[in-house]
Amino acid sequence: MPDKKPEILHAEVVAQSRLFQIERVHLKFANQVERQYERMKGNNRGAVMVVPVRGDELLLGREYAAGTHSYELGFPKGLIDPGETAAEAANRELQEEIGYGAGKLTHLMELSLAPGYFSSKMQIFIAEELYESRLEGDEPEPIEVVSWPLLQWFELLSKPDFSESRSVSALFLAQKHLKLK
Prior knowledge:
Order of helices and strands: EEEEEEEHEEEH
Distance between the termini: 37 Å
Structural class: mainly beta
Helix content: 10-25%
Mean pLDDT: 91
Largest sheet: 7 strands, mixed
Radius of gyration: 19 Å
Number of helices: 2
Number of strands: 10
Strand content: over 45%
């Protein structure tokens, strides 16, 4: 497998919305094969997801997901604002979405969302030593906070509304970090 990245011969924005730009990229590979790809250009600030642990329970949020037109159960998440570190964004999102701040934040991993099509990355944190603290968020309706027994983490996987791949990945990373069986 070659280590040399393909040469970008041409790139142009072919569509855009308030959130995304779709870019067509003309590439030339080391073996001289040329291909055109389309990719979504993110904001390059990145995003965060936080697994909040309060005592012997996980805290999740149930909120509307426009992509699936359903209410989904998952962990607090959001974009990193300009001038913010990933840890600051994680703590802010916790306060906006579930009404808790974290006394201790541990970075678990950086995840690629869909590297074949999307450049953005998400930083996954675990939040411990929680304290009540609420910040105003941008959600159109209050997020329902759901407590889940920490030792029953694996049973979350059987809930039909806990299906987002980033939340599932974060759950496994938290399980590994906390050494849960």
